[in-house]
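tool_call predict_complex ligand=F0G
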Amino acid sequence: MTTMLATRPLAAHAWPGLIATYRDYLPVNEATPVVTLREGNTPLIEALHLSRLIGRSARIWLKFDGLNPTGSFKDRGMTMAVSKAKEAGSEAIVCASTGNTSAAAAAYGGRGGLKVFVLVPDGYVALGKLAQALIYGAEVIPIQGNFDQAFALVRQVADQYPVTLVNSVNRYRLEGQKTAAFEVCEQLGEAPDWLCIPVGNAGNLTAYWMGFSQFYQKGLVRKRPRMMGFEAAGAAALIHGKVIPIPNPETIATAIRIGNPASGVMAVASARQSGGTIDAVTDQEILEAYHLLARHEGVFCEPASASSVAGLLKCHDQIPEGANIVCVLTGNGLKDPDTALKGCTLRHSAIAPTLEAIAMAMGF
Ligand code: F0G
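tool_result ok
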């Protein structure tokens, strides 16, 4: 007798990717060749330790977008940008990147049969991200310069050669990324009171604001959150309510080591419109939040992502009683093993494989 394995309608299994899920809200049509890795549908995890730490009956949630297929929120934008590039007949894409955009472009571009070129600042891309771009088959071009210089160059490249630019100035990128705000609303049953988010090239803050605004205008939620963006202090070009470029940005959070954010004007306007703000957090504050998240919440994000939580802790005295606050964790900690290992010490050197030695090492 044979038994059949019953198929279970697991939510994650049934999830078809964000273009299929939010088709009505996205600029796609029947002719769009959808390139997807079933991105999106990432968990909203309650941060119990942080909520206790903050007090005020506030509830803190982590939107862990590091659980996307290539380990960052960039997959949301890239499924759109690559699908639309293919629809337009493009055969190649290009981007400048601090690492995550290049990983996503490499994966989606390769899957879509496109040639992928990525320009990265030499020596300032976390190891895992570089490995991703290479293994997915992108042409990786390191430059002797920072992200801002790489970005200025790819703009010229895309103007002069037959390649589609897939940085977040490509409007389809933000369209894809706004779906994270839809998911947050659906997961909470309402928009949060605050949204804390890292800011680098400043596209994602703008994308979330677009998403919340769209659900609000449709009457699906009754409010929109205060948008609280956080740059790294060594790369804080937006904190005075306008774009004041930083020529030599420096931060341990290499993902947001950006001195002249391309979407800075839009991000500043979105934060202002929401009643929120863009502030800066130091590397020390970022690292503290990074370790707190791993140790007490069981969530390993990359350093840049922890700036949302560092910012929340910095602004804790402004948090209203009973607020629902979402901190966006944009990327996976596994992408940057060097920073993780640097901040921890292996307390034991290898010991004899005996019960006695192990018991002693354990302090029994
Ligand atoms: N968090 C992570 C992990 C990122 O990789 C980035 C940007 C940001 C936050 C900031 O988002 O630019 O929309 O304000 N990374 C880009 C890249 C620049 O090339 O991967 P933003």
